[in-house]
Amino acid sequence: xxxxxxxxxxxxxxxxxxxxxxxxxxxxxxxxxxxxxxxxxxxxxxxxxxxxxxxxxxxxxxxxxxxxxxxxxxxxxxxxxxxxxxxxxxxxxxxxxxxxxxxxxxxxxxxxxxxxxxxxxxxxxxxxxxxxxxxxxxxxxxxxxxxxxxxxxxxxxxxxxxxxxxxxxxxxxxxxxxxxxxxxxxxxxxxxxxxxxxxxxxxxxxxxxxxxxxxxxxxxxxxxxxxxxxxxxxxxxxxxxxxxxxxxxxxxxxxxxxxxxxxxxxxxxxxxxxxxxxxxxxxxxxxxxxxxxxxxxxxxxxxxxxxxxxxxxxxxxxxxxxxxxxxxxxxxxxxxxxxxxxxxxxxxxxxxxxxxxxxxxxxxxxxxxxxxxxxxxxxxx
Length: 381
Ligand code: GLA
Prior knowledge:
The chain folds into two domains: 6-198, Ribosomal Protein S5, domain 2; 205-367, Alpha-Beta Plaits (2-Layer Sandwich). The longest helix has 25 residues, at 257-281. With 381 residues, the protein is of the alpha+beta class. It is built from twelve helices and 14 strands. Helices cover 43% and strands 23% of the residues. The chain starts with 6 loop residues before the first helix and ends with a strand. Strands 1, 2, 3, 4, 5, 7, 8 and 13 form an eight-stranded mixed beta sheet that branches. The protein binds alpha-D-galactopyranose (GLA). Alpha-D-galactopyranose (GLA) binds next to helix 5.
């Protein structure tokens, strides 16, 4: 078990493995947190800046070599087996993708069995896919006594999701899950690859999540379309990063109206992310909350990735005293809302958000360290 790894969840992952695969070799375990974007959504694939945290909900896995020459992935009472690690369209795809990605780097990986247990809702915009892939990659490396740098671990995890599973995601989720500092947020520059830590200055300010229960699909048509529209707009304006966009150039270019809106979103959103980092540095909760709410409006009106259910939960949260800001989180088209709230207003905010989506699941989120802090035996400095 690594530092900070929740023991009960790890035990549940071992149980999931042994229930499906029987007793066997002592498994290697790992836990990876989810990610919550504070400001900077849908800009990672456009070379933008993102302010994000890793969260204290995540995914634990238990990994051991297979005694049967068949791969096994087991989670929540479901189990799949197969002869090859490649994706086939079931719950094993993400759990086994690290095997292929690590082999592509030249490592010799045996056939494995994986047990999974999660406190992070799946498909809610909190990077459950990245958390699972990073956790399995870390457990495999631990089982083999291998290490990687944080950058290489992120590259393996991104390749597992993008090249093996086929999801056209940007680098945000993997970087947040691995690089988030202890007790703070990460300002990630997806143009340079650089990052800055910003301490979380408040004990009494937390995030409330509300899962609308509608699962989004990052590999889906709409995510891919937003990415293509944004990239085509950047290319038309002759820039490679949304940090280089200027309003007059967008206004005067001959562009499809939808592409113009996408560019307006990514231009504003990357600036808001940098401003949000400043707000956090000066402990200005109202400014950070205001930027989160502005992010939501932009995602709703310009990038067009929100839904009526998400909008209703955001409005309900913002009506509660003590709520500084609220927004949809992750790729959108469903998933969760997060609200920034003082602990005195947290209970009322949770009730209001749950009521706005017919009793949706609510939970508290606090900053968690990423894998580079949690697994120093695997992630080289
Ligand atoms: C998903 C993707 C990320 C990022 C976000 C939106 O989580 O995996 O790369 O694009 O959506 O910010």
